Amino acid sequence: MAESLRRLVKTGSFSLLQEKLERWNDSYLVNTSDQNVNRCCDLIELTSRLQGQLFMLLNLTSAEGGTYGGCDSLKNRLLPWLSQGFAASTKSVTSDTSLSIMADAADKERQLVEVQDDYERQLEHLEQDLNTSRGVADELRIELDDTRARLNDERQVSVGEALISADEANLLREKISSMEDELLEYKTRQGTLQDYEVETRRLRDDVLSLREEKAILTGRTEYLNTSLPASTSPRLAKSASNDVVQRIRQAHLVTRFSDMFARDRMDAMDILRNHCDDHELNQKIVFTCVQEAFHAARKAFRQYRTKVRSTLTLTHVGPDTLEESVQQYINKNGQLLDVHSIVQDVLLAMNTHPTIAFPAEVDFRVLTLFIRELVKVSWSMSALPLPLDIATARMGELYDENRYRRSYDSEYSAPLVAHYIWPALLDSNNRVLLKGEAVTRRGASMGSPRRSRSPSRAMSPRSRSPSPRRMDGAFSPSVSRGYSPRPGSAASSFTSY
Q1: For the chain, how big is the Rg over CA atoms in Å?
Q2: Which residues, 6+ apart, have CB-to-CB distance to 298 below 8 Å?
Q3: Which pTM does this prediction carry?
Q4: What is the pLDDT along the chain (497 residues), one digit of tens a residue?
Q5: Is the dihedral of CA 170, 176, 180, 185 positive or negative?
Q6: What is the C-alpha to C-alpha distance for residues 444 and 481, in angstroms, rounded to an integer?
């Protein structure tokens, strides 16, 4: 029976039947009626042959089961089907439905076979993976045993080393404690040495002062007598010129004034540029800030000095003069405390200044930080034993090469100053310590005409009544030397102490 089934499979009769059905389906519309009938007869003959072979296989299969082999299946399935004429349709199932059911059954059987094959392949892969995992697990178990053995050996070794390291740690703690004690001792000695160094420097300064006083007493400082101002006593001038405070503070203040020209002035110009595009006007505003700040700081310092002198007059005793005692008190306690009031005075003076104008919607308070630094520097310069001062400057006067340098945009052949950018710094003998900067123009006015203010500024709350216009002749170079400006103006010249 098995051989007959194998031959039926090899012949591929059912595949041939399927191919003929497909070809007939493709050429059905082209063929004639006779050709279609012949094709159908061929298929019926082929089907009958296949049914004969299948009946033969059915006979052999039932014979292998004995006398009653397959009896139930024959009674329930084959006999009813034969009685109805093979593929005759029943009441509930049509021929198309029976064919579709057969096709679905074949597809399901095919899918079942494919699923079974996939299951068998996956099972083989799982078995291979399981064998591989078992091998890896065996290797890891061997490595774990080796690691455990090495760990036990190292543990035994570390126990012995721990005993040794504990002794070493105790020795190190003892050494650290001894070194900390030595460090404390060295710090104590270092503090003592620092005290010795401070005392040594103080003694050296005292020796230097004594040598200078000896030189003064022996008559080797005649050059000081020619450079003393008329309003200063000789004794106070000699002690001030030799004072270390004067030399150190003056050098620091000169450097600070130079830094303000290089950095702070440029920062102020940047702030003004955000509110006003007139570069020349911004330069005039910065220069006016410097003038008014120095004037207000000197005025406040004069009041402070007068107050100190009146206070020390009641309790002054000793070999030093009253002026020397006042200067010594200022050197120690002359720090500027009330900066805010002086800054407010500067802002008030700038709002009423006759040569500058500014948009009404912007206040000069944007320069408050710049004015504060100027006031501090001016106060420190006024507090020196020999105070420093800025040079008096007016627009339209002759250019002085000894005190100023021209700006990059100046006309170098012009003899008159159009406006100033930065003032010159002078010592108590009117010697130039730092040059200022000026802008020279041809046709510059000899006077200082007042800028016309905008109507909106005139109506602003902080506007003031305009100052009276000065006569042009009062600002000429020949007359300006003897001219005494109004008190409190930026153009007034202030006396030095």
Answers
A1: 59
A2: 378, 382, 389, 494
A3: 0.44
A4: 567 677 767 766 677 778 888 888 888 888 888 887 888 888 888 788 878 788 787 777 777 776 666 677 776 766 776 766 554 444 454 545 655 665 676 677 778 888 888 898 999 999 999 999 999 999 999 999 999 999 888 888 887 777 777 888 888 888 888 888 888 888 777 777 777 777 777 777 777 767 766 665 564 444 334 444 444 454 544 454 446 778 888 889 999 999 999 999 999 999 988 888 889 889 999 999 999 999 999 999 999 989 988 888 888 777 778 888 888 888 887 777 788 999 999 999 988 888 786 666 567 889 999 999 999 999 999 988 889 999 988 888 898 999 999 999 888 888 899 999 999 999 989 999 999 999 998 876 654 444 433 333 333 333 333 333 333 333 333 333 333 333 333 333 333 32
A5: positive
A6: 19
Q: Which two tokens stand for residue 202?
A: 């103080």
With contact defined as beta carbons under 8 Å apart, do 326 and 305 qualify? Answer: yes
Task: Say whether 353 sits in a helix, a strand or coil.
Answer: coil
Q: Residue 22: count other Cβ atoms within 10 Å of its Cβ.
A: 10
- Distance (Å, whole) CA 222 – CA 217: 11
Which amino acid type is present at position 437?
E
Structure token digits, residue 327: 């200067």
